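On to my pick:
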Amino acid sequence: MWTILKTILVTLLTLEARGVVKKYHPHIVAVTGSVGKTSTKDAIYAVLAAGAYVRRSEKSFNSEVGLPLTILGVPNAWKNPLGWVQNLLDGFFLLLFNARYPKWLVLEVGADRPGDVKRVAVWLPVDVVVITRLPEMPVHVEYFDSPGDVVEEKASLISSLKQDGTLVLYGDDENVENLRGRAQGKRVITFGLSKNADVRAESVSVCLGEDGEPVGMEGRVVWGETSEPFAVKGSVGTHALQPFLAAAAVGKALGRNLVEAVRALGAYEAPPGRMRLVPGLKETLIIDDTYNSSPAAAEAALETLKHLPVKGRRIAVLGDMLELGRHSVEEHRKAGALAAKTCDILFTVGFRARDMAEGALDAGMSDSSIFQHEDARRAGKELEAMLTPGDIVLIKGSQSVRMEKTVEEVMAEPERAAELLVRQDPEWKKR
């Protein structure tokens, strides 16, 4: 019954959203990719909100339901029928009467199943399309015939560009760079760390606090002949710079100068669960990357852990990577093998993550350094007992594994969980 009702709701909400876009003519930035969409969306919002009325997708509202909800400016009613009726009435009000409406929409467009992006691209007129990383083994590949089909699905968003629109591409990813030819004469701007990127970061280093622990990153943003120093607070990892650079590239596309864009990004912080630095118990530091996981994202997080200065031990707590289908065993083993070369202690959480433990053992990690769990909170309780001052702990896993529960067990200020951690809404807390 809920499936039928959901289909009807999505149809009605989408019709209202299409009508609202036609009536109010907002400028639209649409973000897709397999890694970093939400962080990129939030960074772009920071640049645009400095000078206009802007609305962005809330949290990770990127689905067939989330997009019309953002356009209509209404909340997710979950399974509350009266809430959905109210949402439909609010959408009808926007169509029937003139209301104050955002000048810009910053929308996150996801692809859980084949056709998700294509259905949106048919009706959404976009001024700037931003494509983040498209790794060889993307998340959600389980529901596609091949990883290449995921790339094709995401790339279909390019067809939504207006004639005078701009395509912003992550230039360090060959799969993304190869999409340049689909712009059909439209303007293309690239971002990344490579020297060929139009907007790039140089001289990047980790910022250390008074106690010698990482507190963020700094460097210079370069476009053309100009450059500007920047600092990213509260998160680490070169992949955590991608949203910052993507937002600067959007600023460039819209005629902002570099100083304005970087100044606007000064207030940007990575969303919860995205390589966020969280103080841990016993004078430890947590790298909270618990929003979601995929092979590429896990690899990037482990590489970051490997290169951070540390007084104690490097500990990785890795949960299942879901929606990999037939690729699951191989990809979990690869992640485990990389963890063996990266950290001193490995915790795995979940049934599939057992293959990480096997991969770590095969790569030479001692059995005494590997701890396997099925439950994220129990893993956190055992981890707490093992922590010693100076340890740095990376915690990461797919959404359904709920690795934020592990963080909650070992964070120094659990009373700030609602502020610092992902999935703290009442609906999530019930699960």
